[in-house]
Amino acid sequence: MTRFNTILFDYGNTLVHTVSLVDAAMTVFGSVKGKMLGQSVEAQIQQLYHKDQCHQPDWKTVWQQACKDAELVYSDDVVFRHLTEFVEQSSLVPKTHDMLRQLKGAGVKMGLLSNVTGPADVFQNDLINKGIAGYFDTVLWSSAVGTRKPAPSFFTKALQMLSADTHQTLMVGDSELADVYGAKQVGVTTLKVSHSRSGNSQADHHCTYSNLADYVFELTR
């Protein structure tokens, strides 16, 4: 069995459990306008999840439309308040700190690749605030790069930045499309994480959140 010396991690619902954008918006802007804002943002983001979507749209255009739908006046502050609440309500998957610390100590190179529609600084600050930013050798947010998973170029950029061998690299994520399909396009082995191991998946490996750390350790020892 191949022992992997490089791991690419997804972020949302892989290393952190996230809340809905609707819930976060309702906390900040109230139950009526917040719900409308969050639903509009989520609907626009959901439309991006198909195999041919490589371009990451400008986050401002997404929130401008959402503010129009919710009858709110757009400003960058609306976006920052919404997304700051969103990331603050998210929580690390149990054992994430220990897993990343041990992988780092073992010399495993790690990258983080995440599709985000919003200012990259908000999400980077979340990594810092959760105490895990220092574990990663490279971090790619789609809103900063301009492309998004499952685009092959998104993965190859990370591989190049890490000087990684494709055949010794593992992609860990929760999305069948963005993470599994995307990584397989460039020949990277995949590990899909979910609440249950049941269900169809094209991933090479599959684990639950409760045994993610143990499964990753087994593949890197």
TrEMBL record:
Gene Ontology annotations of biological process type: small molecule metabolic process
GO MF, any single term: phosphatase activity
InterPro entries named in the record: HAD-like_hydrolase (IPR051400), HAD-like_sf (IPR036412), HAD-SF_hydro_IA (IPR006439), HAD_sf (IPR023214)
Pfam families: Hydrolase
Cofactor(s) needed: Mg(2+)
Keywords assigned by UniProt, alphabetized: Hydrolase, Magnesium, Metal-binding
PANTHER family: GLYCERALDEHYDE 3-PHOSPHATE PHOSPHATASE, N-ACYLNEURAMINATE-9-PHOSPHATASE
Superkingdom of the source species: Bacteria
Protein's UniProt name: Uncharacterized protein
Organism: Reinekea blandensis MED297
